[in-house]
Amino acid sequence: MNTNATITIDCSRKSEHEINPYLFGHFVEDIRDHMEAMLAFPLKDMDFESDAETKTPVSGSWRAYTNGRNTQYAMEAPAPRHSGRAQRIRILSDDEAYAGITQRAALKGPMNYTVRLVARASVELQYVTVEAVDRRTEETLGRLRMELGSHNWQHCEAQLSISRACSDAEIRVYVPAEHPRWIDHVSTGMLWIDHVSLLPVDSIAMVKREVVEMTKDLNAGMMRLAGNYISAYHWEHGVGPVLERPVMYNEAWGGWTSKYFGTDEFIRFCRELQVEPLICVNDGSGTPEEAAQWIEYCNGSADTPMGALRARNGFPEPYNVKYWEIGNEVWGQWQVGTCTAEQFAERTISFAKAMKEADPSIVLLACGHYEQNWNKAVLDLAGESIDYLTLHLYHGYGPFGMNRDTPAEDRYKAIASYPEWTRHHVRQTTELIRSRPEHSHVKLAITEYNTMYYPNTVRKGLPNEHTLGAAVANAANLNEMMRCSDMVHIGSFSDLVNGWLGGCIRVGDYYADQYCGKQPGWSGHPLTIYGTPTYEVLKLYANRDIRRVLPVQAECGTFSVASRKETPMALDALPDLDIVAGTNDDGSIVTVLIVNRSLEAVRAVLDLKAFEASGETTLYEITSDSYDDINSVFQPDRIMCKESRVPAEAWRQGYDLRPSSVYALEFRAQV
Fold it and tell me: The Alpha-L-arabinofuranosidase C-terminal domain covers which part of the protein (predicted)?
């Protein structure tokens, strides 16, 4: 054990700047299974948008449900103004059969679900049955009868009571065999279904209640709507009556963009969370005029054209979205509309002009890069038009030349060096920003960050993004963002729910892969919702009462990273302890955040200068037996933040910090 760690904090020298609460923001993106995991709908292909996956022409995740020898299936155009397709089912009376469609689903229970059905039928078909059964036992979990009663399209709604939770259920929508038979001729026995959805009554803004509650605990400050998909996303397709919104292909990630989570739903989500929205506009396939109209839709009065559209959609009061971002990773070849830095700078000028004309009060962010040649061109040409430059700082094996054959401890140490890389990129960008008065006002927004354990994207072995080691790295990175908080005002952890990396909230055991799409897990626990160790870190940090940073001096052991590549900074003597300290508004609380990156326990002695602490401190600890430990559907609470009380004297004498662990200490002033 290293017994020589000494931490000194001068509580009389608090920073002049305040830490912006937006530093602890989060990020939602329509990527892989993010929306599917976040939204509360248990069914897929609710509008029959996907092609048939079997020889029988039944859309996507749906399957034929019939014992009729002659039942016919086809996909047709949907109801007027609706998107997707309609599923047609032709039932021959002489078969005396049941016929409809079915889909597997995981259901909460006991729970009431709102069932919405858009259908039409030939006049002799009077009703359909909607039921849920346990696929393994055929136990009926809930059943209801929905009247048809018209040859024209109609919207039906009813409550389906589910008796108990079932992870492997089946939803069936069908004409039952006991339905009165009809004289069989050319115009009978036809049923068209345009839309089927189930929504649990405990959902909030169409989002899973558990996700909303867990996100509230994150105290995010800001929620970002952006990502690669946004550069081919047209906002006007995501507003208005949801069934009339067009189905849009997700050009970045494949599959369908969720039409159920557009602008209005995002704003409602933010208001439920009481966080500030940040919206990234489409600068790839979109235009400055389109971006300006989006701002007018959100912020314009009902007297403006787009504000009137918002009012017609049921939201008469302006949303007053203040923060807007131009461009997402425009420098990347994977990005729709990728271009040179000079071209993007010209684009930024035209977008900023149109967007500011729509609302002069907005704050504008523009796409930056950790490559300074890009930033220099954007700042020199467009710096006067923007308020923030963005950075996306993902940290993985690539810069070290490592792979899964590299010894595990070397890989851990490389990931734990996250803050050193963030410090390097922030310092370089800050120097560039301050180099010319025309853009010296610009601040930084790290609008995406996370650990990225390449080459784990094919999901071989454990999901490293979810480990305690990842949490240690992300905590140390947050420490650096707080140390740089005079320049870094905004942060967005990537992603909020599932997604392609380690979404901090996990729904079930689906590991959506960057290249292979949505890959289902193996556990049979799709209803389990839990936080990763990094979720515990993010919640811990965002809920501390820290407004100003205090200077920290630390003497401790060091470790080195055995990089296979040349790195832009020395990695041969990195401190075992990564520490940041701060105080609240009135100086009555001092909080010390300590990340023990070492593979050994460290005994730390703490000295607070110019602060008379009370006799007891509150200690928060995130730890486990190994840096490779994870939370999972089998052990969702294996790694949790634990709170305890520790005498202040223990810190003056020396307190043992476990390996690969995260700590927060709260000292209160003597009364």
Answer: 447-661
